[in-house]
Specification:
Elements lengths: L1 H9 L4 H11 L4 H10 L9 E6 L2 E7 L4 E6 L6 H16 L3 E6 H6 L1 H20 L2
Parallel strand pairs: 3-4
Antiparallel strand pairs: 1-2, 2-3
Length: about 130
């Protein structure tokens, strides 16, 4: 049963993706660190993981219970090639039933209260939808 749970939680992430996730956990950005202080204490009422491997991707923050990914994007995500990659990645994750929400570094660093309010609202909306089934 444990192996099936791990496969479901990691969506079949391979060893290389897991290594990358571990490396990224060691290189946290200031915006990610600020958001992690909120998420790690379960202030939303849900458990989040940081730099979590999902299939061939690494999510900045992931809540398995809600199938929710939160991404914190730096300026590199403004480049056209990166935007196309992000859109493709989001669409692929949506196919597995995962919701992806994106914030910029500036949003997190300069407007953290609004970001936290939106994340909490999204969490509760997803939990309500889940309980209806």
């Amino acid at each position: 049963m444990e192996d099936k749970y791990k496969w479901n939680m990691y969506y079949g992430a391979n060893t290389e993706t897991r290594r990358l996730a571990k490396k990224l956990r060691e290189e946290i950005t200031p915006a990610e660190a600020l958001l992690w202080e909120f998420l790690r204490n379960r202030n939303t009422g849900f458990k989040f993981r940081r730099q979590h491997p999902l299939s061939i991707y690494v999510a900045d923050f992931y809540c398995h219970e809600l199938k929710l990914v939160i991404e914190v994007d730096g300026s590199v995500h403004d480049e056209i090639n990166q935007k196309m990659h992000d859109e493709s990645r989001t669409n692929n994750l949506k196919l597995t039933g995962i919701t992806v929400v994106r914030f910029t570094n500036e949003d997190v660093l300069n407007n953290i209260d609004a970001v936290l309010k939106r994340i909490t609202s999204i969490c509760h909306d997803l939990a309500n939808k889940k309980s209806q089934f």
